[in-house]
Design goal:
The structure is a single chain. The protein is an alpha+beta fold. The chain has two domains: 8-137, no CATH class; 150-187, no CATH class. Helices cover 18% and strands 33% of the residues. The strands form two sheets. The protein has a five-stranded mixed beta sheet with strand order 2-3-4-5-6, with helices on one face. A two-stranded antiparallel ribbon has the order 1-7. The longest helix is centred in the C-terminal third of the chain and has 13 residues, at 174-186. The termini are far apart. Bound molecules: zinc ion (2 copies). The site of one zinc ion has 7 residues, from loops. One zinc ion is lined by residues 153, 155-156, 158, 165-168.
Length: 187
C-alpha cells in the first residue's frame, strides 16, 4: 500500500478519537474545520459550500463526558418541491452528555429514557462522529427553498412563482389551477 502518495495534511480524517482519561481538568477545547463528504450526510443531495466548523469543549465529569459547543456550515440543498438548489446555513449549538457504554443495558426499565441517551465506549469518544451527528440533526426531513415554494407545474414543467407558470398565464382558471393545487398538496 502506498502510504505517502498524498502529503499528510491533505488526508481527510475519518475519525477524531478523544481519550477520555487524558482530558485536561478544565476541558479540551477544539476549534477546527471538519471535512465531510455528501455520503456522510442524511440528506443525499446536499453539497458543502464551506466545510463544517466546530467549536467544542469536551469535559469529563465523573464518568460522564460533556460536549458543549457549536457547529456552523454552509450547504447547498435541492428543494424537494421545485428541485432548485438553495443555500442552507447551519448554526447549531448543543450541550450533550455521553455515558460510558458499560451502563447500557443495565436496567431495561429505563428503555424509554434511554432513547435519547448517548454513549461512549472504550474510554474514547469520536468527536468527528459527534459533529457529524449534530450536523445531520439540523437537516429538515424535506428541504424546501422556502416554506411557500409552489413547486413545479405538472402541465408545463416550469417552476411556479406567485401561482404563475406559463400555462397559468394563458389560462388562469379552473382545471390547471386545480392541478397546481394537487401538486402542491402532494409534495
Ligand atoms: Zn422550491
Ligand atoms: Zn404550467
Amino acid at each position: 500500500m502506498k502510504r505517502n502518495f498524498f502529503p499528510k495534511d491533505v488526508r481527510v480524517d475519518t475519525t477524531m478519537m478523544i481519550d477520555i482519561d487524558r482530558l485536561p481538568k478544565d476541558g479540551l477545547h477544539v476549534a477546527r474545520d471538519f471535512e465531510f463528504v455528501s455520503l456522510d450526510l442524511v440528506e443525499e443531495n446536499a453539497v458543502f459550500l464551506e466545510p463544517a466548523r466546530a467549536d467544542l469543549t469536551v469535559r469529563l465529569s465523573g464518568d460522564e463526558v460533556l460536549v458543549q459547543g457549536r457547529v456552523t456550515a454552509r450547504l447547498s440543498f435541492v428543494c424537494a418541491r421545485c428541485l432548485t438548489p438553495f443555500e442552507f446555513p447551519v448554526d447549531s449549538r448543543f450541550d450533550l452528555v455521553f455515558l460510558p457504554e458499560e451502563l447500557d443495558g443495565l436496567s431495561e426499565e429505563l428503555t424509554d429514557e434511554k432513547i435519547d441517551q448517548l454513549f461512549y465506549s472504550g474510554r474514547q469518544l469520536d468527536l468527528r462522529a459527534v459533529v457529524l451527528e449534530q450536523l445531520n440533526l439540523t437537516f429538515p426531513a424535506k428541504p424546501l427553498c422556502s416554506s411557500g415554494c409552489e413547486g413545479i407545474c405538472a402541465v408545463c414543467g416550469e417552476v411556479i412563482r406567485e401561482a404563475k407558470c406559463s400555462c397559468l398565464v394563458k389560462e388562469p382558471e379552473s382545471g390547471v389551477a386545480r392541478l397546481e393545487f394537487l401538486l402542491r398538496d402532494k409534495s
